[in-house]
């Protein structure tokens, strides 16, 4: 069942998602060669709790950390570790969630560690632009497939693989609500978008094949060909006249571009 949110509930979701953006900005400030993913996870948990929220991922279906941190060929759901050290030229997808005042925030951003190869930089920029193009379709009267097709068409125009096994989702009092929001599909298909729906749109785009592997730790998903993947995610309220993006990437980008 799809749960339509009131204006007041959307503002609570906005509050959560702005905290997620601020948390990702704080993490981004500390991303550098030699830093471990566990250090970033601890930083994020402390930051979230200091702002009156709790990490939404910690303990969710048994997940052991506050952040999903996925490096290079890891698409999503990487588990932070004191043994995992960032290196110059890596890209790092950080997915973060908060729970505060009865609602959830959820978004992701892919960071560069120092200087990355030009082809990898392009993958990141194309994935972010695919997110924007999908988000532009999040208006009442459209269908989920309009979002999905916009993401797929743009990413595939660069020859990239669009992950099939994972998708975006509704967001509210729970982390994952209806409807699912795939990153591939046909325009005019899927659930009707209505004012008051809140969804997470999250392209997961691979430099090579779309095929992925679910690793033996039960969480980490990697590209089958071991080429890099990028992941960006917005929380978006569907509006009558267009999308209301509850996530604010400008907070993150101001922090990392200082």
From TrEMBL:
Q: Which residues bind a divalent metal cation 1?
A: 95, 106, 233
**UniProt keyword terms in alphabetical order:** Aminopeptidase, Hydrolase, Metal-binding, Protease
Q: Which reaction does it catalyse?
A: Release of N-terminal amino acids, preferentially methionine, from peptides and arylamides
| Boundaries of every Peptidase M24 domain copy | 11-216
For this chain, one GO molecular function annotation is: metal ion binding
Q: Which GO terms describe its biological process?
A: proteolysis
> Which free-text remark accompanies the cofactor?
Binds 2 divalent metal cations per subunit. Has a high-affinity and a low affinity metal-binding site. The true nature of the physiological cofactor is under debate. The enzyme is active with cobalt, zinc, manganese or divalent iron ions. Most likely, methionine aminopeptidases function as mononuclear Fe(2+)-metalloproteases under physiological conditions, and the catalytically relevant metal-binding site has been assigned to the histidine-containing high-affinity site.
The EC number of this protein is 3.4.11.18
Provide the binding site for a divalent metal cation 2.
Answer: 106, 169, 202, 233
Question: Which CDD domains does this UniProt record tie to the protein?
Answer: MetAP1 (cd01086)
Known function: Removes the N-terminal methionine from nascent proteins. The N-terminal methionine is often cleaved when the second residue in the primary sequence is small and uncharged (Met-Ala-, Cys, Gly, Pro, Ser, Thr, or Val). Requires deformylation of the N(alpha)-formylated initiator methionine before it can be hydrolyzed.
HAMAP family, per database record: MetAP_1
Q: What is this protein called?
A: Methionine aminopeptidase
């Amino acid at each position: 069942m799809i749960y339509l949110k009131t204006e007041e509930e959307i503002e609570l979701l906005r509050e959560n998602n702005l905290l997620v953006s601020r948390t990702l900005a704080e993490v981004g400030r500390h991303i550098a060669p030699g830093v471990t993913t566990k250090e970033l996870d601890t930083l994020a948990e402390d930051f979230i709790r200091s702002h009156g929220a709790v990490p939404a991922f910690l303990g969710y279906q048994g997940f052991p950390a506050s952040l999903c941190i996925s490096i290079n060929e890891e698409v999503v759901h990487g588990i932070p570790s004191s043994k995992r050290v960032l290196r110059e030229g890596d890209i790092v997808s950080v997915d973060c969630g908060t729970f505060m005042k009865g609602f959830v925030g959820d978004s992701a951003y892919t960071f560069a560690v120092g200087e990355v190869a030009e082809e990898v930089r392009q993958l990141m920029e194309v994935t972010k632009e695919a997110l924007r193009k999908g988000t532009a379709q999040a208006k009442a009267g459209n269908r989920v497939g309009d979002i999905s097709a916009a993401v797929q068409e743009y990413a595939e125009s660069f020859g990239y693989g669009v992950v099939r096994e994972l998708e975006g989702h509704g967001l509210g009092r729970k982390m994952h609500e209806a409807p699912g929001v795939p990153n591939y599909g046909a325009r005019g298909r899927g659930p009707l978008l209505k004012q008051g729906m809140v969804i997470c749109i999250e392209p997961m785009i691979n430099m090579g094949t779309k095929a992925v592997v679910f690793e033996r730790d039960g969480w980490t998903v990697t590209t089958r060909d071991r080429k890099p993947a990028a992941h960006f995610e917005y929380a978006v309220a569907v509006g009558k006249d267009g999308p209301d993006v509850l996530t604010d990437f400008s907070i993150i980008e101001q922090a990392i571009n200082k």
